[in-house]
Amino acid sequence: MKVIADLCVIPMGIGVSVSREVAECERILAEAGLKTRLHAYGTNIEGEWDDVFGAIKRCHEAVHAMGVPRISSTIRVGTRTDRRQTMEDKVRSVETKLRPSGGSQNAE
Amino acid sequence: MKVIADLCVIPMGIGVSVSREVAECERILAEAGLKTRLHAYGTNIEGEWDDVFGAIKRCHEAVHAMGVPRISSTIRVGTRTDRRQTMEDKVRSVETKLRPSGGSQNAE
Amino acid sequence: MKVIADLCVIPMGIGVSVSREVAECERILAEAGLKTRLHAYGTNIEGEWDDVFGAIKRCHEAVHAMGVPRISSTIRVGTRTDRRQTMEDKVRSVETKLRPSGGSQNAE
Amino acid sequence: MKVIADLCVIPMGIGVSVSREVAECERILAEAGLKTRLHAYGTNIEGEWDDVFGAIKRCHEAVHAMGVPRISSTIRVGTRTDRRQTMEDKVRSVETKLRPSGGSQNAE
Lengths: 108, 108, 108, 108
What we know:
Four copies of one chain form a homotetramer. Chain A is an alpha+beta fold.
């Protein structure tokens, strides 16, 4: 089962800066061979269900191993059976409809 | 790794009513032996990481098998290494601080 | 516009315990006259859009005023135009379908 | 109070394709003068609290006006009092730590 997910990891009980921990998660997701795209409030991830969630588990383990006592993450996860869709497809489908000429047949 | 999670499954591409699909997910989580508590915008889940996410995967598979072509779920997931904490502990910790007599030592 | 929402406030840059801040948010939501229900990973809230989001803003302001330098909250918010629905309706609609006798006409 | 938010609007009770509704929300956020960045599972938004949440309310109103009977959105919202931070700052802060030469002083 293919998924497009979005992960936001919040380390707690350390200082206000969490970019070191977020960078570690980026490394883990990349090493898992997953397609990812970092944005300002999380990371888009595309891959097979087990690969994606296995990597998210390793993110939690790794961030705890860095000395973070508590983590609260939020994950959005989408699956569909009607057709294949990539992260780029989703963005393009919206952008097409934002152009003045509008009327694309694409579906997000 | 023990987790407390919160799952909200949104079936898409069917009608406005989604309680039949949500009930199916409740059954799957219960059959997995997980501790759960349904609320008005999701379900609290407590258990081992692999058990919780294995059951969430089966929820997506089962809802698709019911004829739903697209699903978008949101998951909050918390892990901590400093101490054990149950779902009831979390609620009690806040409720204790809401009482006039206040000054509990408990920590959420 | 009536909403059912779910709020999870994560104070960052303080210790692992955040129940004091969560309790303060509960007080603010109650003072706003909103219907709420605390659970293990957030709080269900029912009310008019402006009342709900006005109160959530005051939660952020109050938690910062308690000395918390950074907050990351997640909010689920649902609106519908087809019919009125309360938090209790949503839970009951799922629970009805979980009973062996099953076949309710209720819709979540 | 400045916020960085992330919005994912899920129209329910229509077909599987929701890009037309997501595009309408993009237009509303842009017309509100907010800084936004569309990604594959939502939209980053930067602005003042009232401007951001006023625009999100208009998104729900507009999507209902398009004929969508039910909407379930998820919003992440971050505020901080220790320093100013833009969406670009957050991404750059993580990306700096991903470079081999590593040791930036930036904080996410």
